[in-house]
Amino acid sequence: MRITDWIVRPATVDDAQGLAVCHIESWREAYRGLVPDHLLDAFDTTRSTQQWTRIITELPNATDSSAAAAERRTLLVAVAGKPETAIPASVRPGPRGTEILGFAHAGPPRDNPRVADRELYALYLRAARYGTGIAQELMRAILLPDTDTALWVFEENPRARSFYRKFGFAADGARRIEPFSAASEIRMVARRGITERR
User: Fold this and answer.
1) Residue 36 CB-density burial (10 A; 0-12 exposed, 13-18 middle, 19+ buried)
2) How much helix, strand and coil, in percent to the nearest 5, is found in the chain?
3) Which residue, among 151, 124, 161, has the nearest Cα to 30 in the 3D structure?
4) Is the pLDDT of residue 161 over 60?
5) pTM
6) Please, which domain of life does this record's source organism belong to (predicted)?
7) How far, in whole angstroms, is CA 71 from its chain's centroid?
């Protein structure tokens, strides 16, 4: 077993501010040059914290069997901490002030018509943690192996596209331009039986 200084667990409301900081700083680190600077610089931690609080409070109970697993929204965080001191992720609270190193958010697809059963809405990691295995662990934890999954990624983000290919994602030809940036996004889809390539 590899010793790490981080763990992956479900997000709690106490993680909202840490998620906001991680999300904003990850965008600034990854998208400077793709997204206009004035937009990146205008991100507001207070507003983002409120949005993450709403998202977390609206997450379904993981034990609720009324919805298929693919239809459930899931939000996982990678936090600083020692795995050997962690209690099981299903019951571990998020202490206030915990540093969020990265996160993954997935749920029902937003595309209409649907091209997959599930969508990876976001996977972000602080740049200082690139290459540590955190992103891989978040992907392993968020993906459902027998469920088609789609995502959107900036075409001019070769690092992210290469990472997703390792998990079986391939561009399906769809593209879009976000209203806030002239950069185009491409859709990538992983079909059932997702396997990680090393």
Assistant:
1) middle
2) 30, 25, 40
3) 124
4) yes
5) 0.85
6) Bacteria
7) 16
